[in-house]
Design goal:
Blueprint lengths: L1 H35 L5 H14 L45 H4 L39 H4 E3 L7 H5 L7 E3 L2 E3 L11 H9 L11 E5 L5 H6 L5 E6 L7 H7 L4 E3 L14 E7 L11 H9 E10 L5 H4 L7 H17 L2 E7 L2 E6 L60 H4 L8 H21 L10 E4 L6 H6 L5 E7 L6 H6 L3 E5 L12 E7 L1 H4 L6 H11 E12 H11 L4 E7 L8 E8 L15
Parallel strand pairs: 4-5, 4-7, 5-6, 7-8, 11-12, 11-14, 12-13, 14-15
Antiparallel strand pairs: 1-3, 2-3, 8-10, 9-10, 15-17, 16-17
């Protein structure tokens, strides 16, 4: 009987258990479907918490990331430890790999070829860290840096003697003082710029990008900044010791460069104005080839300023130790070339002459034989300069601006650039351009949460190594900083778009050294650079070059695929950088990661490396 009773109980419980299990399964199925439908907010809240926990932290001089972010493991566990890079000899403190004097002297002096870029072959590249000079100090913050530079950072006094009368630079105690003078404006750049502004619409935003050829210590560019004009200044590394280094130490955009035998590394129609202030460039040489190159990079409707020889030759020809006939003929030849280029003379008084390039070629007396045959006027990297005139883009009416009319700055920063509106950039539409601008605003906001110094005067000189459409620089736009937008020569050519936005930049191949002195940038942004150069050149060489141009205690932000970032991080581990990997701002499942690095403070000599300033 007992056995019979137990069997009956088992039969009763069996169906009930089955019904209970089925009911629970149905309940959890319905619950899961409800959450996936978007009504359940648990995942969204978790994502927001993840975002904030990953990005809400500050970067201080003595970085300690470990308590702030979820780290991402380096996956190559079997690999040996990172190679440790030793400091270079102190003689390399001001090393510029592609403009070194010893190598330069092996090249012809004709057309300044020896002052152009001549990079070392692979077997001669340095594989060590360029030391800062002893006593190196963090530069003064802008705007004080415009007028003062620490002597220890650029310990070269020759210009204080050589240019004493012209008021370029003075040595006072342990600092250099820059009074704002120049060869053609010894009483200061402001008065000189005021005279230019009486002819050129500098004040209303029509002029935003400018080119200073043979810039000296870039005082013209420094004082144009307060007029909201970004000047790209260049000068060779020559007997005027460290002039470009002084410019960058002051917080003014500049590169080492020269008008020689190859094209300038800028796109056509880039600059709203260009100037030569006693730059001593032989404008009439080679049948006007250098003036034709300025015309190529000058925007239709742009202005060219010439102050110095041969302007006002009647007053100065004896001072210049030249005959009256020679300088008169030189000015006449410049006038003829300007007319041939379709430039109109707008002003000549005292030492200054100003021309304006016509907005199109409808009324230009040009001969077809003088027009350049190249179909791509922006293909200029290491290309020989030619004695020919860059054609205007076609127009349909006499009043139309060739290449497209630009809005006044700052409206042009976010307006759709003409090159994009006309479909000249492959794969980029007005809609995708606007989406890119929004995306970079989001990225830069995330960077500012990671490092609250971004957007402050602490990071004055900023570089974007792979600038794309210039979205990073546009999102960062502020009087406190400027961005050198680099478009790699192997990337889609977007530099013309960047200039149309009212930003500045340059073409460059990151397999080679950049045209700058060591310790000239406070913040470097590397978005997709290493994915781009994978299988093109050695990551180690690119990172060592970044270290060369980065200031002690400067910062780097890498954004790239996780496997690439891991390779970069491993090399950086031997470079006296403090690094931290962070998830993408959209969460850990995104394969793209962010690597933040801060260069430790150290100077030439043994046993002096530290992660904070001494």
């Amino acid at each position: 009987m007992a056995t019979k009773h137990n069997q009956s109980g088992s039969r009763t419980r069996g169906p009930l258990s089955i019904f209970a299990v089925i009911g629970l399964c149905c309940f959890f199925y319905i619950l899961g479907a409800w959450q996936r439908s978007g009504f359940g907010k648990g995942d969204g809240i978790a994502l927001e918490v993840t975002k904030h926990s990953q990005t809400d932290c500050n970067i201080f001089t003595n970085l300690n990331f470990e308590t702030h972010h979820n780290d991402v493991e380096i996956v190559e566990h079997s690999e040996p430890k990172a190679k440790v890079f030793k400091p270079c000899d102190a003689k390399y403190t001001d090393y510029t790999p592609c403009q070194e004097q010893d190598r330069a002297m092996k090249f012809p002096r004709e057309n300044m070829i020896y002052r152009e870029r001549h990079c070392p072959p692979v077997e001669e590249k340095l594989h060590c860290l360029i030391p800062a000079p002893k006593g190196y100090m963090t530069p003064f913050e802008w705007p004080k840096s415009r007028d003062y530079v620490h002597y220890a950072n650029v310990p070269h006094k020759s210009l204080t003697v050589e240019k004493a009368v012209q008021n370029w630079v003075q040595f006072k105690g342990n600092v250099f003082k820059f009074p704002g003078g120049g060869t053609m404006f010894p009483q200061g750049a402001d008065a000189y710029i005021d005279e230019l502004a009486s002819v050129i619409p500098i004040a209303d935003g029509s002029v935003r990008t400018a080119l200073d050829t043979g810039c000296g210590v870039a005082s013209w560019g420094a004082y144009m900044l307060k007029r909201n004009v970004l000047a790209m200044s260049f000068a060779p590394r020559d007997n005027h010791e460290a002039q470009v280094q002084f410019a960058l130490e002051r917080g003014v955009p500049a590169v080492i460069g020269v008008l020689g035998s190859i094209n300038l590394p800028y796109p056509s129609r880039a600059f709203d104005m260009a100037q030569c202030s006693r730059c001593l460039i032989p404008w009439t040489a080679n049948d006007g080839m250098y003036l034709m190159e300025v015309d190529r990079v000058l925007r239709p409707g742009g202005y060219w300023v010439l102050s110095g020889p041969p302007i006002n030759w009647k007053t100065y020809y004896q001072t210049w130790k030249r005959s009256k006939e020679e300088v008169k003929a030189e000015q006449r030849k410049i006038e003829e070339l300007a007319e041939q280029l379709c430039w109109e003379k707008k002003y000549e008084k005292g030492d200054i002459a100003i021309w304006r390039k016509k907005v199109n070629d409808k009324s230009c007396p040009r001969k077809s034989a003088d027009i350049c045959k190249s179909s791509d006027t922006d293909d200029v990297w290491y290309k020989n300069m030619e004695t020919c005139i860059t054609p205007y883009p076609k127009v349909s009416s006499a009043n139309e601006v060739a290449g497209g009319e630009l809005k006044k700055f700052p409206a042009r920063l976010l307006a759709v650039p003409p090159r994009i509106a006309k479909g000249l950039v492959e794969g980029v539409s007005a809609e995708s351009y606007q989406g890119d601008s929004k995306l970079w605003k989001k990225h830069v906001n995330a960077y500012k949460r990671i490092n609250k110094l971004i957007g402050t005067a602490r990071y004055r000189n900023v570089m974007d190594m792979n600038a794309g459409l210039g979205g990073f620089a546009a999102a960062l736009e502020s009087p406190k900083s400027w961005v050198m937008n680099v478009v790699p020569t192997i990337a889609t050519n977007t530099l013309g778009v960047i200039y149309e936005r009212g930003l500045i930049g340059i073409y460059h191949d990151w397999c080679e050294g950049f045209s700058s002195y060591p310790r000239t940038y406070d913040l470097i942004h590397a978005n997709g650079v290493f994915s781009l150069y994978q299988n093109k050149c050695n990551f180690e060489d690119i990172l060592l070059e970044m270290d060369r141009i980065l200031r002690p205690e400067g910062a780097v932000i890498f954004r790239d695929e996780v496997d690439v970032i891991n390779k970069v991080r491993k090399i950086a581990g031997g470079m006296r950088w403090d690094t931290k990997m962070i998830d993408h701002e959209d969460g850990p499942l995104v394969p793209q990661k962010i690597l933040v690095a801060v260069k430790q403070y150290w100077v030439g000599g043994a046993g002096n490396s530290t992660s904070s300033k001494e």
